[in-house]
Amino acid sequence: MSPVRRCSRTACGRPAVATLTYVYADSTAVLGPLATYAEPHCYDLCAEHSERLTAPRGWEVVRLSDPSAPTRPSGDDLEALANAVREAARPHDRGGDGRNGGGPQAADPMEVARRGHLRVLRSPDS
After folding, report:
1. How far is CA 49 from CA 3, 23, 74, in A?
2. pLDDT digits (tens, 9 = 90+) for 9-64
């Protein structure tokens, strides 16, 4: 017997990636991550069949996501990352606008020196 579980659909031999369970009392079909072990009243489905799953009329399909599965970054995530990189690469004004009061000493009394995004801090007991 193969250690890889296969899709329960007839004539489909692809590996299973999700488990389908019917909750008859609630008229709900629950599609979640592949169960740890095969159960007799659950159906293992491949990626294609799990994406195309429909429920009978009047039933609801609940799709549970796998929290351990890697998610693809969205456009907003990529844009936020690009903005953070741009912000870190931009040269910082050191006291020309009066916000810092002329140097790092006024901004943070513990800060001794700064190089890029790194700071040298004074020991708390000195």
Report:
1. 20, 19, 24
2. 999 999 999 999 999 999 999 999 999 888 888 999 999 999 999 988 999 999 98
* Segment 110-113 long-range contacts (CB within 8 Å, at least 24 positions apart): none
Reported as type and span, the H/E element at residue 81 is helix 75-89
Residue 6 scores a pLDDT above 60: yes
The tokens describing 7, both together, are 């899709």
How far apart CA 106 and CA 89 sit, in angstroms, is 23
The answer to whether 110 and 121 have CB atoms below 8 angstroms apart is yes
Kindly report the backbone phi and psi dihedral angles of residue 6, in degrees, each rounded to the nearest multiple of 5, phi listed first. -105, 160
